[in-house]
Amino acid sequence: MGLGYVPQEPFRVDGQDPLFQRREYRGAARRRGVGNAAQSRARGEWGERIACRWYEQHGYVVVARNVRVGKGEIDFIATRQDVVVIGEVKARASEKFGSPAEAMTQHKQRTVRRAGVEWARANNIAYWQLRFDLVCIVGTRVEVLPNAF
User: CB 82: neighbour CB atoms within 10 A?
Assistant: First the structure.
């Protein structure tokens, strides 16, 4: 039975780079200098306070904050007359990695919308009264996008 050609010399020469003929590990790049989860969470809470203050200054009454409904979370709920605002806040220190509005993906929109409808159903509120707003905060600049999604 023949084995084919079998070289006499070794495949790896002694003293050669240890990565030679070895599996490469290509996981996600390590995050350095980006910040930690506590800072991100603190910025998010700060952004929610700023957004709620903005709505109160413009005649709304903030009914609830950080409402967990099903698999989703609503950052704040505010009312004025017969309109109920379901608000999502995106706060960033800078636009270095894109605008906060870009972080509101279709999946996140769907999640917030489902949570808002479930909350409205549980509180006997008509669906036509709901409005979904996006509040973008970059540094100290606040931009409110009514009926964003």
Answer: 9
